[in-house]
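Input sequence (611 aa), recorded before submission:
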Amino acid sequence: MVKHQPLQVYERQLCLSCLTGIYGCRWKRYQRSHDDTTKWERLWFLVLCSTFFLILFWLYFWWEVHNDYNEFNWFLYNRTGYWSDWSIPILVTTAAGFSYVAFLLILALCHTAVGQQMNLHWMHKFAVTVALVVTVISMISMEQLWGEEWDILLLSFQATGPFLHLGAVAAITLLAWLVAGQFARAEKSCFQAVLLLTYLTVLTALYLVPLSITSPCLMEKNNLGPKPAIIGHQGAPMLAPENTLMSFQKAVEQAASGLYADVKISHDGVPFLMHDNTLRRTTDVEKLFPERVGQDSSMFNWTDLQALNAGQWFLKDDPFWTALSLSEADWALSGNQSVCTLSEVLQLAKNSSKSILFNVRRPPPEHPHRESWINVTLHTVLQSGIQQQHVMWTPDIDRQLVRQAAPGFQQTSAVKKSVKILQEEGIVRLNLRYNQVSTQEIRDSREGNVSLTLFTVSEPWLYSVLWCSGVQSVTSDAPHILRKLPYPIWLMPPEEYKLLWITADVISFIVIIGVFVLQKWRLGSIRSYNPEQIMLSAAVRRSSRDVNIMKEKLIFSEMNNGLGSAEELSLCSENRYEGYTNEAITPRDQQHHARMQPSYTQKTPCILQDH
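Predicted structure, token format:
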């Protein structure tokens, strides 16, 4: 009985199979290769990296713009006429796309680490292309429709810059293992020089990034100013329907220092609170007055406005995802809210000693109070009995008349002007969007005794940055959240931060040097190859120095095991021995080893065992 002794026993490589299978659908051994990645696949790797960083940027932007989700939804509502929370689907879709692309990138880097040839499957290529195109279109659309929102990136970097730098340094340090491996394996000195120069350039740039990082939170603790006052924007719209009496009561309960309201004049001259031009979004006007859905809310009489429900929409649309957290009593009360008048809010502010800031909308041209809207509003305020110093008056029209009738009002401008012009006009307060002023302008206004109120600030990180900048007050949709902040989220002395980033850079550099030395020691000499690698590379029929070295290693190992030459391997193959064929050992290899080894005249048959 004859038994063949196999030259090689294949080991199961489940991880490697999953790696190449998921990335390129190369689940079989013969489909894998250790040859160099083709130029086409290298190009796709660059596309994959570009898509990763672009989606990462878009995801970071969309996460940081969380402060303005409600504003974004309202903006789209005005363009489409349909209210929906568009922000969450965009965020979830972006996060899913980023996770997918990041997973592929990790697989690609693992291919590089284990020396496998990259071959991205066509389905992945299609999906990556779709993700790239959708992201580019989304960014272009954002620029055209809501371009001012990009300003939030600069503000967010003031809050996250130091931590993003540390994360980037950690990432580039981890990447040193792959870079050092490629550097040690590379055969061409030109490639080594380009690789090392590129890596060192990126590394040096990251090490020096802190020199350009500026943040108002990098300051001594004893220089921190008082906590900015919190003004309830439309009351507390996360806890109750906006611009309703319940919403302003909730703001008072949450210790807001002031109240902000949007004021309009009804057809019969009653100032009431409403943000939109129409009543469609925040009332049940479609049910009671279906023929007047698109009509300006100022064209309704107060008796008609009183009949509308201004709370059910809040429970139905849940604009801030907070309705389900309401108690049963608050849920029932929210659903029974009606349109609120300016007089009711003024009375609440008076009784609770709160200041009030309101934005009065001028009625449309056909309105009977088109020319007298300032007088109507002023008369309502004075009749309420609220202390004049608690009123922040914003309309620019007839401001001199208002000064004469109510000299105690805080004259407030909603238009950005220089401190000198504001002082000449007798303006003591500015009410601006948070992205309209810089840190230096905040300091200049404080030195010029002009108070700043910035809107709408609902995220703790943004509130912390403005606090460190010296802002006096903010309007917020979330007074119940901001009031719980006893201190900015982070505050660090400049010298302490300098020590931190220098230490991180030094540790990173030492680790990188160690990694390069280790990889050079591991991979600098001729590597040992197993027969499986030789077979896989030979099957592709591509010539490379690595393949030739592996073949040489195999022949040497087989000679030591008792097979005298490559010819013996061929004899075994001819006898249908399940080993390696002549494709793995070419005539060129036989001639090469014939010159290097002593000639063997005796031919040894295949290894047999008699029983």
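Checked by second reader. The two ends are 6 Å apart (CA to CA).
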